[in-house]
Write a structure and sequence with these properties.
By secondary structure, this protein is an alpha+beta fold. The protein is built from five helices and four strands. The chain has a four-stranded antiparallel β-sheet with strand order 2-1-3-4. The protein has one domain. About 20% of the residues are buried. The chain is about 60% helix and about 10% strand. Helix 2 packs across helix 5 and helix 4 packs antiparallel against helix 5. The longest helix has 19 residues.
Amino acid sequence: MTHSRWTMALVVALLAAAGDLAAAPNETARREITALIGALDGSSCRFQRNGSWHDAAEARAHLQRKYDYLLRKDKVDTAEQFIERAASQSSMSGKPYRIACPGQPEQTAAAWFGARLKALRGG
């Protein structure tokens, strides 16, 4: 590879990396994530985190803090990433979050949020 081609390849790689660092959720992803957090807050479901059950308002506040942290660190671009990185398990213990809603079987938070996302998208 000639010097100029190598330089051009390096510049392209650096620009691509810079683009990844500056990534942030687009408006659609932000709306979806806000709706997911709101779906829990507006429910009568309970949220289990590290072995303790919390009401929907406490869960919403916790997930909002995690989402805000991920935004500051540029680590969430999509609703799927929000579910995976904030709403599925404890970042401290690694234990999966669980959700229990009246009249429904208890399930993982990942499954619950995944179903809400699918419904949001009309699926």
